[in-house]
Amino acid sequence: QVQLVESGGGLVQAGGSLRLSCAASGRILSLYTTGWFRQAPGKEREFVAAITFTPTYADSVKGRFTISRDNAKNTVYLQMNSLKPEDTAVYYCAVKDQLLGGGEYTYWGQGTQVTVSS
pLDDT of 84-95, one tens digit each? Predict the structure, then answer.
């Protein structure tokens, strides 16, 4: 059974930083694509970043967010700098169901709230 547990969310002022963590059990993250998504109130869930071998980012976070992975800890991180009020959302990590980038995002964490005050 795959379990993903996010942590690191909180309240921060605009311009501040947070680091989110996604700890996995039941799946070796280095073999699968892990993504971060977010959903703001009244909006659809949107892609933020993903990593298999190299990272990819949504245009809205390029240059501000960095996704990384610690294989020894089986954990993926999302370092968020220069945060803006529009980054406020519940952030979810997700893992694809096939090796090395294939398949769909099948496994999801419970989410962690990020609130950026102006």
Answer: 999 999 999 999
Residue type, 32: Y
Averages of pLDDT over each 10 residues, the chain, 118 residues: 95 98 93 96 97 96 98 97 98 92 92 97
CA atoms of 108 and 36, how far apart (whole Å): 10
SS3 readout for the chain: CCEEEEECCEEEECCCCEEEEEEEECCCHHHCCEEEEEECCCCCCEEEEEECCCEEECCCCCCCEEEEEECCCCEEEEEECCCCHHHCEEEEEEEECCHHHCCCEEEECCCEEEEEEC
